[in-house]
Specification:
The chain is mostly helical. Helices cover 84% and strands 0% of the residues. Helix 2 crosses helix 4 and helix 4 runs antiparallel to helix 5.
């Protein structure tokens, strides 16, 4: 009985269908996009710290962000992050409600709730930064 429950859980988490090739590539790129965003933020923090000492490093960071290559990499990282959050929210809902197959409406309600929380926190942070 326990083995059957484990198999049901694994089937809910790991889909048996084969993913399209581009989606598989995007899943493999998620760690690299997170590393890229972390490095850019770390570079920005270092430049802000050295700017407080009296140097003009922060302007170098701003010019770095204006580079076309960096803009493209940031846009790709944003799209990969959005895809990752969509797939993560879907898998969380499927995992939570895996034992109840008749609760499709609860799955969609959880996904919508997670997106509402994400958008609310993002809007709050945006308003906080703009003040």
């Amino acid at each position: 009985m326990n083995q059957q429950n484990n198999n049901n859980y694994l089937n809910a988490v790991q889909a048996d269908i084969k993913r399209p090739f581009i989606i598989a590539i995007i899943h493999k790129l998620v760690p690299f996009s997170m590393i890229w965003v972390s490095l850019v933020l770390m570079y920005g923090v270092i430049c802000m710290y050295t700017n407080a000492v009296g140097q003009d490093e922060f302007y170098r960071f701003i010019f770095f962000l204006r580079s076309p290559v960096v803009i493209v990499l940031n846009c790709v990282a944003l799209l990969i992050t959005l895809f990752h959050s969509i797939s993560w929210y879907n898998s969380v809902a499927k995992t939570i409600f895996s034992s109840r197959t008749d609760k499709k409406s609860l799955t969609y309600l959880l996904i919508v709730g997670l997106w509402l929380i994400t958008m609310s926190v993002s809007a709050y942070l945006l308003l906080f930064i703009l003040k």
